[in-house]
Amino acid sequence: MSSNQKSEFKIELKSDFPPKVALIGRPNVGKSTLFNIITETRKAVVKNLAGVTRDINIEPVDIWGKQFDLIDTGGITEAGDIFSKLIREQVTEFLHSVDLIVAIMDGRAGLLPEDRDIIRVAKQAGKPFLLVLNKVDTVMDEELFKADFYEFGVDMIAASFEQRRGVGDILEWITKQIPENKGTVKEGMNIAIVGKPNVGKSSICNLLLGVNRMLVSDIAGTTIDSVDSPFIYNDRKYTLVDTAGLRRSAKREEDLEIISAFKSQEAIRRSDIVLLMVDGTIGPTDQDARIMQSILEDHKGVIVVANKSDLGAKEIPEYRKVFREQVQQTFHFFDDVHVVFTSAKTGSGVEDLFSTIERVSDQINFKVSTSDLNEFFFETIRKAPAPVWGTTNVKFYYVTQTYQKPPAFIAFANHPDGVTNSYRRFLIKNIKEKWDLHGLPIRIFCMKSRKGGSQ
Questions:
Q1: Strand ranges (DSSP E) for 338-406?
Q2: What is the pLDDT of residue 376?
Q3: Which DSSP letter does residue 276 get?
Q4: Total domain count for the chain?
Q5: What distance lies between CA 168 and its chain's CA centroid?
Q6: Span 202-208, mean pLDDT?
Q7: What CATH code is carried by the domain that includes residue 267?
Q8: Can you give the residue range of the structural domain that contains 65?
Q9: pTM to 2 decimals?
Q10: pLDDT tens-digit series, residues 129-152
Q11: Is the peptide bond before 406 cis (omega within 30 degrees of 0)?
Q12: Rounded to 5 degrees, what are φ and ψ at 296?
């Protein structure tokens, strides 16, 4: 079965957990390289030595509006040493618990006896299965290297991970097997409060709830545990999560600090909207920028809350103007973020905060019809020269909104790799202006359309 043929499989999710996608293959065929590319990490050690990966690495992936856990397994080999035997047994048993399997072979080496065993093990697991031939450096070599593997009758893609060739096709195969996550219907929004220690997170929480549920102290790091607190404001339901302060890694010397940081990251993941608390008398710092990047990586609605603004206004001339300039400089990668000025001590700014929360909540739930979206999209792309892939103009065919929140979109094109980050920013800027989505992290994914693959 060629890469152009549609797979007949479609996984059925048995729980609320994301599907698991396992990478398997002999040692040194490129599993860890592909794992690092897709997850954008260096968690999997990559060396030109067989048997480097001996543990199973798992990393969550969120791409094109689909979520899954990517798993890098140890190399399967028939070698007699104890590590090889353990890895073979571990991987074979583990495959029964995954949802999708991507088997990676060395295209240049051709079909080896161990490869036959790996394909047999993958088929016995009874899961949707993709065969990837890595180290195929030129298009001219694809059919030659594929010839040995056609007998297995499975989906097959030729790739070169070092050149990033074929990675998009692999991701497209994976995402096609995963059904759209329409989300579960729930009442209200989850709001996480994060920020450096001692910026007033607990005080703001107490002010919003009207009760002293949090331990408040001038000593940084006194909020150890996180507490979920449901409440209603203006006939809207919310659940507030106040978390321990995020410290710099160099200061995490005690177990409590490590646990606190972990819980803060978990709170961000569980939230719909994140309030990034900043000391208004100091302004946002590099540490706040790193927290903001973490929030955006998890694709959450975010509001910067400048607390202690009563003191800031007294100490700093043109305080609000200065603070907004600091925000644009420190968060230059997301400079249109919502900003609210508050004082937990006096209670000022709370109404503005909730007004902004309601606005962001409405933005997160924004939905546009595919026809209206495409009409706007094609009007927009006429405003700027089309991006170029090699010597060919990138041609868009249509765009659709995913079920993801905040809003995300998938644009189908003949050469998606030619859509640069600057062109994405141009599209996102126009989307925000058209539908008043300023301050929201919008995503645009690009996928290859079979209509124009040869154009």
A1: 338-341, 388-389, 392-393, 396-401
A2: 93
A3: E
A4: 3
A5: 16
A6: 76
A7: 3.40.50.300
A8: 20-177
A9: 0.58
A10: 899 999 998 888 888 889 889 888
A11: yes
A12: -70, -35
Task: Give the neighbor-by-neighbor strand order of the sheet with 301-307.
Answer: 227-233, 236-242, 189-195, 273-279, 301-307, 338-341
Give me the amino acid identity at 386.
A
Return the DSSP state at 348. Answer: T
* Tens of pLDDT, residues 334-371: 989 999 999 988 889 988 999 999 999 999 999 999 99
Inter-CA distances, 391 with 88, 145, 373, 397, 418, Å: 46, 27, 28, 19, 10
Residues 387 and 247 reside in one and the same domain: no
Q: Report how far Cα 284 is from the mean position of its chain's Cα atoms.
A: 24
The DSSP secondary structure of 281-302, one letter per residue, reads TT---HHHHHHHHHHHHTT-EE
Q: How far apart are the first and last CA of the chain?
A: 23
Q: Are residues 226 and 322 in the same domain?
A: yes
Q: Which residue has the tokens 């200061």?
A: 251
pLDDT for 377-404, tens place per residue? 999 999 888 888 888 899 999 899 988 8
Least confident of 15-19, 101-105, 427-431: 15-19
SS3 130: strand
Other Cβ atoms closer than 10 A to 227? 15
220: Cβ contacts below 8 Å, ≥ 6 apart: 197, 198, 245, 247
Q: What is the pLDDT of residue 379?
A: 93
Distance (Å, rounded) from C-alpha 84 to C-alpha 98?
Answer: 21
Taking every pair of Cα atoms in the chain, the longest distance, rounded to a whole number of angstroms, is 77
Burial of 315 (0-12, 13-18, 19+ CB in 10 A): exposed
Which structure tokens are listed for 410?
């998938």
Do 290 and 261 lie in one domain? The reply is yes
Q: Are strands 129-134 and 57-63 parallel, antiparallel or unpaired?
A: unpaired
Q: Which amino acid is at 180?
A: E
Q: Which tens digit of pLDDT belongs to each residue from 161-170?
A: 988 889 989 9
DSSP H or E run through 455: none
Q: Are 52 and 176 in contact (CB under 8 A)?
A: no
Indicate which CATH number applies to the domain containing 419.
3.30.300.20
